[in-house]
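Hey team,

Filing this mostly as a record. A colleague (T.K.) asked me to run one chain through the structure pipeline before their review meeting, and I want the input and output archived in the tracker in case anyone asks later how it was produced. No errors, nothing strange. Just documentation.

Input sequence:
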Amino acid sequence: MASDNEKLAELERAISAIRERLQSRYPEGHVALDVRLADLMPLVHARDAAEAKVASIGTVNPRAGGLLNSIVQSWKRLVSRVLDWHVREQVEFNRGAIDCVNSTLEALNDLNHALKELAERTAATQSELRHEIRNIYDRAEELHGEARELKDIRMHWQEWRKEWERKLSINEVQFLRSAADLQAAFNHRATLMEGNFRDIAKSQHSDFEAALHRSNLDVQQRLWADLDRIRTEYEGLIHHELRKVRQRAFLAPPTPQTQAPSQLGSDASDEFYDVLHFAEKFRGQEDRVRAGLELYVPYFKDAKNVIELGCGRGEFLERMRELGVPVLGVDLHDESIAMCKSKGLSVEKADMFAYLESQPDGEFDGVFCSQVIEHLKPADIPRLINLLSAKTAKGGVIAFETPNPECLAIFATHFYLDPTHVRPIPPALLSFYLEEAGFGRIEVHRISPAIETMPSIATLPESFREAFFGALDYAAIARKL
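Output structure:
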C-alpha cells in the first residue's frame, strides 16, 4: 500500500509540474511568432549616391567659353593629371567600399529570404506543438482521473482485505478440524482392515504351503523321470537316426577317387563325426550365424567376383546371393558341399590351396574366410595370405574371422571343443601377415562378447573383463594395395 501511495503522489506532482511549465511559457495558451524583415531600400539609395561621387573623381567642372576659361580648364586638367598618383589609392578604396556595400546588400537579401522561410517553418512547428500540448493536457486529465480512481480503490481495498482475511482464517480452522477428524477415522478403519487382511493371508499361506508340500514331491519325481526319458530319447535320435537321415538327403553315392591331403589341421578326426551336426551344436543355428554376417555386407555389397574359403553350411553364400553379388564357395567336406548344392548355391569341392593356385592372378575382388585359419598349421597361414594377395585384384577386400586369443574364455570353453583346431592367431600377428603380403587399410573388429555366453564374468571388474574376457572372435578386414 505504501508503494501505491508513493506512485500516486509522484504522478500528481509530475502532472502539476507540466501544467506550470506550459502556463509560464505560453500564458495565452498559444505561441505567437512575429518576424519583421529588414528594409534595404535606404541602403540601396545611399549606395547609388556613393557610386555617383566615386564616378566624378578626376573630372573638370565645365565653365563658360573664352580665353580665360580655356586657360583655367587647361590648368585644372594639368593639376588633375599631376595629382592622379596621389588620389589613385583613394579611388580604389572607394570602389572597394562600393563592392563591399553591394555584397552586404546581397547577403542581407539572402538573409531576408532565409528569415521568411524560417518563419513559415516555425509557424508549422507551432501548429504541431499546439496540437501536441493539447494531447498532453488531455492525457494529463486522463491520468489524473485514473489516479483518483486508484486512490478510491486503495482506500476501499484496506477494508475489504481485513474482512477477507478474517473469513479466510475461520474457513482454515474449520477445514483443518474436518481433515483431522477424517484422518483419525481413516487410520482406525485402515488398522482394522490391515489386521483382518494379515489374518486371512496368514491362514491362506499356511494352507497353500501345506498343499504345495504334499504335491511337490510327487510332481518332482514325475518331472525328473520324464526329463531323463526325453533326454535319453533325444540324444539317441541325434546321434543315430538324425545323422542317417541327413546323410541320405545330402550325400551322393560314394565313388572311389584320389583326394589331395587336407590342409585343415594335422589329423583327420572330423572323418569320424557328422560335420553338419558339429556345426549345428557348437557354432550355432544358421539364423544366428547369418545375423553376424551383417558386419561384412558394406565391404562386399559392390564386389563383382567373391570367393569363400571353407563355406560350410553356406550362410555367407546365401547372404551374398540376396545382395546379387556373384560368389563361389570352396570346401572339402562332402556334407557341406551337398547341403550348399541343395540350397542352389555355387560351390566346388577342392583343397583351397590347390584351387587358388589354379586360378589366374587378380581373379577375385573379394575373399571371405570364416573360422578356417585356426585349423591350419602355423606355416600355412602366411602361405595362404600370400597366395590370396596374388589372386586378389588391386583394391579388393579380404576378410578373416577367427577365435580371439586375447579372450581367455575361448581356452576354457570354446577353442578346444573342435578337435581339428591347431592354434589361435592373435590379431596383431594376423595384421602383420596381411601387411607383409601387401594388404592395407586393415581393420580389426572384435565380435561375439564373451559376457553373452558366460554371464558369470559380469562379476569381474570392468577393466579386467574388457582386457581378458572381451570378445570371443574377431574379424580382420583389409584391402589389396
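Quick notes for T.K.: Residues 2-61+73-164 form one domain. The chain has 15 helices and seven strands.
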